[in-house]
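Structure (tokenized):
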């Protein structure tokens, strides 16, 4: 049950601003999540979003169950996202 991962431009831009080591960690995590999304994703207070924790960063993801797509809407430091 593998999902495709799609990044909104602003989320991708925020990831690209991170140090290379952290970027690698983030993208590796998304590879893991695409294979087993509900092992890692938690419901978020927004009704259509799930959250993913990666160190001090959070990703808010909209899940398209029908097309098996994880759409990364927001990627921010945890202090900025809540």
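Design, position by position:
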């Amino acid at each position: 049950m593998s999902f495709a991962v799609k990044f909104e431009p602003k989320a991708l831009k925020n990831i690209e601003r991170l140090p290379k080591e952290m970027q690698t960690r983030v993208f590796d995590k998304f590879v893991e999540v695409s294979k087993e999304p509900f092992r890692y994703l938690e419901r978020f207070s927004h009704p259509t979003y799930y959250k993913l924790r990666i160190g001090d960063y959070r990703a808010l993801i909209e899940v398209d169950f029908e097309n098996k797509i994880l759409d990364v809407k927001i990627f921010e430091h945890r202090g900025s996202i809540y």
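Reviewer-requested clarification: The two ends are 30 Å apart (CA to CA). The domain at 4-81 is CATH 3.30.2310.20 (YaeB-like fold).
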